[in-house]
Amino acid sequence: MVLASGSPRRRELLTGLGVPFTVQVSGEPEDSREADPARLAAELALLKGRAVARMAEGAVVIAADTVVAAGAELLGKPESAQENEVFLRRLSGRTHEVYTGVAVLSGDAEVVEVARTAVTFRTLLPQEIAYYAASGEGLDKAGGYGIQGLGMALVERLEGEYSNVVGFPLSVVTRLLRGAGVPVWGTLGAGAE
Ligand SMILES: Cc1cn([C@H]2C[C@H](O)[C@@H](COP(=O)(O)OP(=O)(O)OP(=O)(O)O)O2)c(=O)[nH]c1=O
């Protein structure tokens, strides 16, 4: 079993499922012209998975990609504290969507699914925006915040799965891995689906 992701959050969550795995990252940049956020998350997860599956013959490979959409705008990883502030002003007092595509590849079989969570931020004071951006926590994260860290103080409401916002929707991960014959929590979960 191979995790095709350099994300420490994904590593931690997969470890919690009791699945032995190694990490392999292709290093190839993924590229897509897809504008629809759900389809983009699915496509990028599949591209990451395929790149690693080529190097890890025979293994089950899991990959994921998280896309944050504020209306028609896609918010990637901010490149500076200033850009992080722009993102936070865009998210303040509004609801945005987080999509994570999960791809599982096993031999010739490829399955991909997307989870969606709607996240509502409370209205942030300019000082709060400056403080959070200066913390640096949001810099390596899509949307410019980490709900698992200090970023949880920005959030007022969630609709959907929490682990999806962190980048690894565990309900989808569990179902797809079991479908590929990987025992999650020591079981294939017969009769549970
Ligand atoms: C919104 C949000 C995103 N994120 C993270 C999840 C993902 O790691 C990251 C989105 O970037 P991704 O491109 O999905 O993943 P990655 O670059 O971290 O890792 P890899 O491509 O090797 O799989 O943002 C959080 O950790 N918390 C949050 O609240």
Automatic annotation (TrEMBL):
Keywords: Cytoplasm, Hydrolase, Nucleotide metabolism
Protein name, per record: dTTP/UTP pyrophosphatase
Active-site residues, as the UniProt record annotates them: D65
Annotated source species: Deinococcus soli
Cofactor: a divalent metal cation
Biological processes annotated in GO: nucleotide metabolic process
Superkingdom of origin: Bacteria
Function: Nucleoside triphosphate pyrophosphatase that hydrolyzes dTTP and UTP. May have a dual role in cell division arrest and in preventing the incorporation of modified nucleotides into cellular nucleic acids.
Catalytic activity field: UTP + H2O = UMP + diphosphate + H(+); dTTP + H2O = dTMP + diphosphate + H(+)
Pfam families found in the cross-reference section: Maf
Subcellular location: Cytoplasm
EC number(s) on file: 3.6.1.9
Family affiliation: Belongs to the Maf family. YhdE subfamily.
Annotated site residue numbers, Important for substrate specificity: R9, T66, Q148
